[in-house]
Amino acid sequence: MIHPLLTVQGMDIAFTERVCADIGFELHRGEWLGLVGESGSGKSLTCRGLIGLLPEGAQVTGQMTYGDRVFDLSNPQAPARLRGVEIAMIFQDPMSALDPLMTVEGHLKLRGRADGADLLRQVGLPDGENLLKSFPHQLSGGQCQRVALACALARHPKILIADEPTTALDVTVQAGILRKLRQLTDKQGMSVLFVTHDLGVVSEHCDRVMVMNAGRIVERGTAQDVLRAPKAGYTQNLLRAIPTPATRGRRLMSATPSEGEMSAASLRQPAEVALSLKHIRVTYQRPNGQRVNAVDGVSLSLRSGEILGLVGESGSGKSTVAKTAVGLVHADGGSVELAGRPVDWHRPQAEWRRAVQYIFQDPLGAMDPLSRILDQVRTPLDIHDIGQRRDRAVMAGKRLAEARLDPALHRKKPRMLSGGQRQRATIARALALSPKVLICDESVSALDVSVRAHILDLLMDLRAQTGVAILFISHDLSVIHHLCDRVAVMRGGRIVEEGDTAEVFATPQHDYTRALLAAIPKMPERDIGTLLQGESA
Amino acid sequence: MLKNALRAGAATLVILMAGGAMASDLKVAVQAVPASIDPASENSNVSLRVIYSVYDTLVKTDFRDGGKLKPALATSWTIIDAKTVEFKLRPNVKFHNGETLSADDIVATFSPVRIGLDPNIPVESKAFLGGIDHVEIVDPLTVRIHMKKNDAIILQRFANFPSQIISAAALKSSASYQDFAAKAIGTGPYKLKSFKPGDKVVLEKFEGYWGEPKAAADEVTFSVVPELSTRVAGLVSGQFDLITEVGPDDIKQIDAGKNTKVVGGPILNILGLFYDSTNDVLADPRIREALNLSIDRVKLVNSFYGGRTEVPHGWQMPSFGDMYLADRPLPEYNLQKAKALLKEAGYNGAEIVYRTRNYYTKQIETAQILQSMWKAAGLNIKLEIKENGAQVFADDDRRMIVDGSFSAYYPDPLGQFWRRFGQDTTYATGKYWKVDPDMVAMGDELATSIDTARRREIFGKMLDKFDKEPNGAVLYDLAAFMGERSDRVSLKVLPNEYLDLTTDGLSFK
Amino acid sequence: MNWILLRTGRALLTLLLLIGFSFFVLSISGDPALSHLSADVDASAIDAFRRKWGLDLPLWQQFFIYVRGLFHGDFGMSYATGRPALEQIMAGMPVTVSLMLPTIFAAIGLGLPLGAFAAMRRGSTADRLTITLSVLALAVPNFLLGLMLMYVFSVHLGWIEPSGIVDWRSYLMPVATMALPMAAIFARFTRSAMLEILSHPMLDTARAGGLQPGRIKRAHVLPNIAVPLVTITALEFGHLFTAAVVAESVFGWPGTGRLLIDSVASRDFAVVQAILLLTGTTMILANLLADIAYGAIDPRVRDQRRRRVKA
């Protein structure tokens, strides 16, 4: 057996209470080891613990062997000597990973590399000479992450710890960076400890994988084994929560009260058009006075009971289009119609506001931090004077119950709730007015997969129960595929392709759509039977 | 032996040198310095403190000798009639600019521009000297001053502020009155060495001083230290020999110091009230009388000054000499009578506004106590505290009670009582009240008669009438206190705001 | 170029509004004639005073004449001394500046290291002590602080003369009075700016790259706290004059600050206005310098400007 490059044994991390327990693993030369788990599972802390980058107050025990050197992890200074030279690390947010006041060249020189341009070429930035003089804010997210990678690789480390390095990036960018990283590590025989919540990425790139839950490693094995035939109940649940072509139109999670109603509406023939956007054009002025078309003649129509997916990468204009439907952005051209009647958001009417509701990505930012959940759901009822004053609290409670928020939480303030619970509350608030159209703008993007699955199930159920039309905006194609009846693909302010979801995914017509689909990390085919079995268990 | 002698000699020398430099320089911390050292241009306590050392008057009021009038720049004088007085000037008196005193200087001193007759040059002197018709030169050392009207205090006018004699040459050689005022050329024991407005006035001993007593210090520096606590600190630390405007609350602390002491007392000035009787409520003299009867003045003096000042016997000062009506009682305090008067007047609790500001020592505190005293009598007083005089004295319907000082510029009712309540005053013209015709007639006689017995009789009658129909109220004598570094200097204060820095008033230790 | 013009225009307007506002507020709340003449003055002298200084004209006309004078470099005359207002201010300026300069250096020299030290030892006794002391220094009014210093060093110990400029030691108390609360502000600000930078992900990147702590501090932390520090320094410039007003009054220094107090009280308009113009201009220049400094430090600001200038 080959001697492992890195061995970790019995690592515990505690702050006031223990957050990681008995972490142990081996990392071999040239190997990609995936570390998977949801937020709070301890995967980032584990990585940081290895190189002594834990926040103050962390108590660590355990031992790490690197080559033939043994380190006591309770002393953060001990593994610190390995940083950069033997073990490097890159982080999730590429924009804030770099110093905004320092040029790219400065970052690299700080790490002893005068041959910056070469290094940049290695990480896939061919125009290295020009980039050297640039500052981080002048680069795109993908470029920043490549610069961060170049920084990490500057001293030829043997191991790279990559903590969700592509999560904040668009799929096509992610695919490019991962491909590059793979090439580099293969060439240099580098090992990678790859932290992610995206099992697709694990499936495509990792040799082995560890699954973490609540501070413990609950399952480990080769990536294909774990993803195809998970043994631990947690891994099985995790996998079930992930939308795949096989789950399209089905609920993801079990044990919900309305299982029988599942997805009935998706089969129903949609009725009248609830929302129609015609030739929407939005331009904005750059600081330099130049006018830019953010949205360039987009037409969309959404029927009652239908879920329309709007997909595209950042900057494609998908949110801008949606915002014209509720008057958050005023269109410079085109028209908005609700139930066939034109709407002028320059002269808004209460009735229109009731008809269309908008849910944002960040539920915390969308809520009043000082007001109780129930009161926030009640507020729209008060504003629109719906029902009797004394009944409104009950009505609001009912909406929250429909959004499956535990009654015990109704009187709490947003900060006391988890991300998923907060998003349920904002959905309940949006539904308080019984809207005809619900716009979900990246509403599940920030959530963990299992939480996301519950919200997706909820949206599906709500559509079935209320016949609400949903415009579902996402950059995540697998979610779109799972949830939506129809899909529109946006790029550069235009719709490049539109059609029945199944058809678009099966036979994409436009090159861009094809590129997008190709960039999705593929999960191994799973046996539906196993999953259903798990579901009924 | 020789060594010891040398050592002793050196030590003595050092002491002498140190003593020589130290002993006769006086450092005074003041709350402000005057904007101008011309007597006609400024009338303020900060100015009076300085000009007393720089100028002389024709006749000297000897405050240390019961206010007797004594020869100064005039060696003798004759009151020719009630309108005319003649002065014989002292020969060989030198001004600070080297000129010799002559009749021309008297003419210049009382020239139209200096007595407020030039409509473009604002001076303070018209109220005092506006009655001068002209100055006649009899010979180079004899002048005759003619008044427009009979003047009961014709001699006192030339023995007090602002009749300090200035140099005709200085006035003539100045491009503007402003330039002249900055020069400050007088005949006094000190001459102006340097002057930085808002900061410092430095006087130095005038070696050519004609008279006695001479300047006690070689140099006197008045430094502005606006903050009282800082002045006190400077006195305690020894930075200053004298500090001005010590508040009654600081007396104890300074007196407790080993080397510091408080000197001073009443200053021929009464803190009093004005009643605006043109408004509905105060138009009734019974209500005004009730206001006066409800004031317990002795209590005011005791609570603020611990007995260091006094309640005057009506609108007069003992310094009035022959004109002082010593047998007049203290202002009456009688709450029963006040209540009865209010009832009789049908006072219905209407609001009476008392406007004041923070200018005189304990002014606001006094107003607050007055408010409670009046409340005890059933009067409804609304206290309004303003930022400045303009706001207090603004002629509007909320001007009802205001307060102010009644300085006795002359040792005579004309210099105090009638200067405030007469028919030509800014108060009568400023529509606070209409002066009763009987009162006007008596006032005219008081101002023009030179028969002391008759004037005493009239003054008594005027005060009686005023008590029944008051346009104001006596509160108490204002007092001024200074802190003295008693291990270095000893100051004998005057009973007014002048500062005597001659050897009569100041001595070094 | 447009940017400079726009800024200059805005600055001039600000100054005009500043003096206009103060002129009218002071005019309707007090009368210069009654402030400069005694209560015993004859009414004709009041008229003469008003005539001499043009106070008999309607208010708007007085203001117009004043502003017209400004455009000819005439800042008006002081009613109190009859001398040009500017001359009077310039006489006090060296005193005030001689207080302000050491103050700002002392405040930064004391506050910055203290705040940085506290941030790097967050939660320690030294940190808590720094916070407590800075709250204390901010809570005690300048005025009281000055008197406290005076009580200790002049009255009790007798080391320093309490008022005026006697020798170099005279600077100690007024500068301390002005600088201590300001140092407290700098310390608190530096501390929070430091903490923000210290928890910034870029430092994780730097540490993970194996850079030494001293290197990280010099390369990343110091340049990044410079931006907020420039902001606070520019802001504190405004407080500097306010602090000088208090210190000059308490310690009896013949500076422009004390002159302002006297001039406001006596409604010596020309002097008040000229001081406001001077301090206003100083503030505007301080802000301009700060803006230039932002550009020098932060490339994002540079880019934003370049784009605006192109437009």
From TrEMBL, chain A:
Segments forming domain ABC transporter: 8-239, 277-517
Major site of localization recorded for this protein: membrane
PROSITE patterns (UniProt xref): ABC_TRANSPORTER_1, ABC_TRANSPORTER_2
Subcellular location: Cell inner membrane
Membrane topology term: Peripheral membrane protein
GO cellular component, as recorded: plasma membrane
Region Disordered: start-end pairs: 246-265
MF annotations from Gene Ontology: ATP binding; ATP hydrolysis activity
Keywords: ATP-binding, Nucleotide-binding, Transport
Gene Ontology annotations of biological process type: peptide transport; transmembrane transport
Top-level taxon in the UniProt lineage: Bacteria
Cited InterPro entries: AAA+_ATPase, ABC_transp_ATP-bind, ABC_transporter-like_ATP-bd, ABC_transporter-like_CS, Oligopep_ABC_C, P-loop_NTPase
Family of this protein: Belongs to the ABC transporter superfamily.
Protein name as it appears in the record: Peptide/nickel transport system ATP-binding protein
Organism: Neorhizobium alkalisoli
TrEMBL record, chain B:
Entries under PANTHER family matching the protein: D,D-DIPEPTIDE-BINDING PERIPLASMIC PROTEIN DDPA-RELATED, PERIPLASMIC BINDING COMPONENT OF ABC TRANSPORTER
Family to which the UniProt record says this protein belongs: Belongs to the bacterial solute-binding protein 5 family.
GO CC, one annotated term: outer membrane-bounded periplasmic space
One record GO biological process: peptide transport
Protein name: Peptide/nickel transport system substrate-binding protein
Protein's organism: Neorhizobium alkalisoli
SUPFAM superfamilies attached to this UniProt entry: Periplasmic binding protein-like II (SSF53850)
Compartments in which it is found: Periplasm
Residues of the Solute-binding protein family domain: 68-424
InterPro entries to which the protein is assigned, alphabetical: Peptide/Ni-bd, SBP_5, SBP_5_dom
This protein's UniProt keywords: Signal
Signal sequence extent: 1-23
Main location: periplasm
Gene Ontology MF annotations: peptide transmembrane transporter activity
UniProtKB/TrEMBL annotation, chain C:
Keyword Nucleotide-binding: no
One GO cellular component term: plasma membrane
Subcellular location, record wording: Cell membrane
Principal place of residence: membrane
Residues of the ABC transmembrane type-1 domain: 93-290
Annotated transmembrane regions: 99-119, 131-151, 171-189, 225-251, 271-297
InterPro entries registered for this protein in UniProt: BPD_transp_1_N, MetI-like, MetI-like_sf
Membrane topology category: Multi-pass membrane protein
Record keywords: Cell membrane, Membrane, Transmembrane, Transmembrane helix, Transport
Transmembrane listed as a keyword: yes
GO molecular function terms attached to this record: dipeptide transmembrane transporter activity
Annotated family: Belongs to the binding-protein-dependent transport system permease family.
Name of the protein in question: Peptide/nickel transport system permease protein
Record organism: Neorhizobium alkalisoli
